[in-house]
Every structure is written in C-alpha cells, then in structure tokens.
Amino acid sequence: MTVIVQPTIAEAARVAAQKIAQAMRKKPNLVLGLATGSTPLRLYEELIRLHKETGLDFSRVTTFNLDEYLGLPPDHPASYRRFMQDNFFSKINLNPNHTFVPDGLTQDITRHCREYEALIKSCGGIDIQVLGIGSDGHIGFNEPTSSLASRTRDKALAEQTRRDNARFFASLDEVPHGCITMGIGTILESRKCLLLAFGQNKARVVAEAVEGPVTSMIPASALQFHADASFIVDEPAAANLKLRAYYDQAFANELLGS
Ligand code: F6R
Q1: Is there a catalytic annotation at residue 189?
Q2: Has 136 been annotated as catalytic?
Q3: In the predicted model, is pLDDT for residue 254 greater than 90?
Q4: Ligand 1 centroid to 187 CA: how many Å?
Q5: Which CATH number does 2-257 carry?
Q6: Res. 258: pLDDT tops 80
Q7: Fewer beta carbons under 10 A from the terminal one: N or C of the chain?
C-alpha cells in the first residue's frame, strides 16, 4: 500500500491524473475503472485539461464504472451514467460504445451482473481502478460487512450512505435504497487501484483503511491485500495517519526514481 499526501485537492488530483496519463501513453487501449461522487471530479477536470492542452488521447480507452443506483434511468439527473456523461465522457474523445456503467433499470439483475463481469474480462481486465471512499469505509457501494470476495451484484445502501448522497437528490426520500456495484473481489482484480480521499470527514476512515486491521467493517481495508494500491489524499484526510513521515519519505523516493 502506498500513501501519497498532497497539500491540496488540486495537487492530489494532478498526481492521480499523471499516473493515469502515463499509463495511457504506455497502453493507449487502457481499461479504466471509474468512480462517481464529489471526490473524482477534480481528477476528471485534470484529465480533460490534459486531453485539451496536450492531446491526451482517449479514443482507444475503455471505461467501466463501479456502480449505479437501482431504479434510476440513465438520463436521471442523479444517475451515475448521467454524472459520467456530464462531468467526463462528453468532454473527451472516448468512444461512447466503450463506456460501461451498470444498468440501474435491468430486469434481470443476476444476469446483468454476470455479463458485466464477463465484459470486464473480455476487455482484458481493469488496468487502473479509480476509487473514492465512503464515510463508512465503503468502496464502490460495498457497504460494511460486504464479503471481501464479492463480485458485481445488487446491494442495499446503508442509511449513512443515503444521507451522505442526499445532496445529489431533491430530498432524502428520493435517494434509492439499492444499487448494483462491482464487488470487492472484482475491484481487487484490477491491476492498479488509486483511491482518492479529501477532507477532514474522511480522516478517520482513511486511517482505519490504511493502518487498521483488514475487516469487512471497513471494506476499503481489503486494499491492503492488493499488490499495487495507492491512497492519494489531501492534508485534512491524512490527519489521523500514524506513519505519515514514512509515507512522505517513500513518495519522495518514488519521485527521485521517476
Ligand atoms: C461512487 C462510489 C462511492 C464513492 C464514495 C465517496 O461511484 O463508488 O464509493 O466513491 O461514496 O463519495 P464522495 O466522493 O461523494 O465522498
């Protein structure tokens, strides 16, 4: 596990974007796993800037989103397909046929989830998975007590998650109770995981995920089993980390090597 602490969200987003851009230059048909929510917005802005200003080419990239609300049509203002369309896909040169988000209106959830997994495999697996972290430690929508071996499936949202996400809806009542999410086992199969976390309200859960025991009560702690997982956080989100000096030293060494 690598922890990279940056002074601001903008700088953290730049570090994450550079890692993705570097991988895309090496492998133009990169398979990217994507997240929604507030956290990755600056990363998407930075990737859009790199596309516009340096010609970063997404034409051969394929994307798979982590999750979608059950019951929301793709054009609903709070659906994750719409979020991706508005904040990222429409602003770069991705082939729309190469962008995949679980279908919140599927009539056969089990089959859809099986097909989503098969599609990821048929594209050669996810090269880089972008993740945020919920205030309860979830990744994707794998809420506490999710199996650490879980695959893409439907899942009930925790009340805390519904409250956290109510800001995207007209009222709490409108927040769906269910979702489709890649499983923790699915996420752990990506070749690289980049988890972003910003703000003081993520400080407790970041420290638990990085330095606490691996437990399904903090699903992000499963990333301790991943051979190439990085947490990229701003100062406030790093506030509870005990081994901060070690992380800074290790990142300084990485910069020296690059
Ligand atoms: C969204 C997702 C979630 C979010 C998490 C943090 O696709 O997978 O795990 O990353 O809920 O959300 P924000 O970034 O809004 O704090």
Answers
A1: no
A2: yes
A3: no
A4: 14
A5: 3.40.50.1360
A6: no
A7: C
The helix (run of H) or strand (run of E) holding residue 45 is: helix 41-54
| Residue 41, C-beta contacts closer than 8 angstroms, at least 6 positions apart | 87
Residue 229 has pLDDT above 80, yes or no: yes
Q: Do residues 70 and 179 lie in contact, with contact meaning Cβ atoms separated by under 8 Å?
A: yes
Q: How, if at all, do strands 62-65 and 178-181 pair?
A: unpaired
Looking at 46, 67, 127, 189, which residue is catalytic?
67
Token pair of 63, please?
Answer: 């994307």
- In degrees, to the nearest 5, what angle opens at C-alpha 191 toward C-alphas 101 and 183? 45
| 206 token code pair | 């970041």
Residue 103 annotated to the active site: no
Does residue 36's CB lie within 6 angstroms of at least one atom of ligand 1?
yes
- Per-residue b or e along 3-36, where b marks 16 or more CB atoms closer than 10 Å to that residue's CB: bbbbeebebbbbbbbebbbebbeeeeebbbbbbb
- The verdict on the CB of residue 35 being under 6 Å from ligand 1 is yes
Average pLDDT of the chain is 97
